Amino acid sequence: KGLDAWEAVPGWGKVQMLLFAGLIEFHDEIFFSKRGTHYMKGGIPGKNMVPGLYDPLGFSKGRSEEAKARGRASEIKNGRLAMIGVAGMYAAATIDGSVPLQPPC
To answer: Is the model more confident about 66 or about 2?
Structure first.
């Protein structure tokens, strides 16, 4: 079960993962304020402003802006589906019978 895997991680390991994710978010907010328009104020959602963090090998260098916008939209949708999946995993682990047709674990 997924929650058992999280519980097996030591406390400092959890702190390290959460701090790393927070650091990425914090740097992204700083770069947005200095290099462009924030996505909450009319900027492009899903555009990462931290240099070298996204696509360090330059795979999307030759893509058109339309293709990049489609890729960003797909990535946002993928993230939303992942959040729904995590919520379903949590519900299945904590509430018996909450996920229909799932065999007992």
So the answer is: 66
Collapsed DSSP state (helix, strand, coil) of residue 59 = coil
Residue-wise pLDDT tens digits, 64-80: 889 888 888 888 899 99
Amino acid letter for position 44: I
Which distant-in-sequence residues (6+ apart) come within 8 Å of 73 by Cβ?
46
Three-state secondary structure call for residue 98: coil
Q: What is the mean pLDDT of residues 16-29?
A: 86
Under 8 Å between Cβ of 37 and 8: no
For residues 62 and 51, give the distance between their C-alpha atoms in angstroms, rounded to a whole number: 17
Pick the closest to residue 29 from 53, 50, 45 (CA basis).
50
Q: What is the pLDDT of residue 81?
A: 96
Instruction: Say how many Å lie between the first and final Cα of the chain, rounded.
Output: 8
